[in-house]
Specification:
The protein has 266 residues and is an alpha/beta fold. Helices cover 45% and strands 15% of the residues. Belongs to the enoyl-CoA hydratase/isomerase family.
């Protein structure tokens, strides 16, 4: 499948999806969001993929919705249905990325993450940023409220008080502060950012595939579960995983005091 606004690399354990509209700060118009959704489907169908790295080209990760998109324009004569734009361009994309049945996803935030770009970054399992990057909930600057799941991701990670301030005041949040608040996993020096992302991806590739999938599912389920419900899920998942090859390999490696060689086999 040919793409115009993104690149997709498949065929190895590490899949790579790059937003390629640097002149637009990798903002998403209808065509680009469609390409990203199509690419995520291809990643899902690629049996080799065990990690997905999502990043942007140039100085931005993603600036959210492309405000120059004709569908976003508002005049005295024309009132846009922005809810429809969000539903078409973002809702299914965020849900698809957040639940992507690839063991792990990494948002490599190489620069500016603004508006819907913040939601895109937080929809991944790991969010890593360069120290020069920042996060900006810019919706209130143009008279809108959050989209792309930001009103869900932010309170889940940093609580309602900080979420309210970030979205209402539309202030930049540095990568270092984002890390200290728990919004992202790690901020990395710019000159070692690519190496840090690759090291994480390689580490995840060598991890037990099915255990990672169940770990993600268990943690995400906790948002709406009681402790009792979560205990039941944990029991079910470890029962399943305890019958698989990776568990046997992990035990043998523990006994032999060596590093396990997980194969992702059942």
């Amino acid at each position: 499948m040919a793409f115009s606004n993104i690149t997709l690399e498949l065929g190895t354990a590490i899949a790579r999806l790059t937003l390629c509209r640097p002149e637009k700060l990798n903002s998403l118009d209808h065509a680009t969001s469609r390409e990203v959704r199509d690419a995520l489907q291809l990643v899902q169908e690629d049996s080799a993929a065990r990690v997905l790295i999502l990043t942007g080209q140039g100085r931005a990760f993603c600036a959210g919705q492309d405000l120059t998109d004709p569908a976003m324009q508002s005049t005295e004569a024309t009132v846009p249905d922005i809810g429809n734009v969000v539903s078409q361009n973002f809702n299914s994309l965020i849900a698809q990325l957040h639940a992507l049945p690839v063991p792990t996803t990494i948002a490599a935030v190489n620069g500016i993450a603004a508006g819907g770009g913040v939601g895109l970054a937080l929809a991944c399992d790991f969010t890593i940023a360069t120290r020069s990057a920042y996060f900006l909930q810019a919706f209130s600057r143009i008279g809108l409220s959050p989209d792309t799941g930001s009103s869900w991701f932010l309170p889940q990670r940093i609580g309602p008080a900080r979420s309210m301030a970030l979205t209402m005041l539309a202030e930049k949040l540095s990568a270092d502060t984002a890390q200290s608040w728990g919004l992202i996993w790690k901020a990395i020096a710019d000159d070692s950012f690519k190496a840090g992302v690759e090291a994480l991806a390689e580490r995840l590739v060598s991890s037990p595939t099915h255990a990672l999938i169940r770990t993600r599912q268990a943690i995400l389920a906790s948002a709406t579960h009681t402790l009792e419900q979560q205990l039941l899920i944990e029991s079910a998942y470890v029962r399943e995983l305890g019958m698989q090859h990776d568990y046997r390999e992990g035990l043998e490696a523990f006994r032999e005091k060596r590093k396990p060689k997980f194969g992702g086999r059942r």
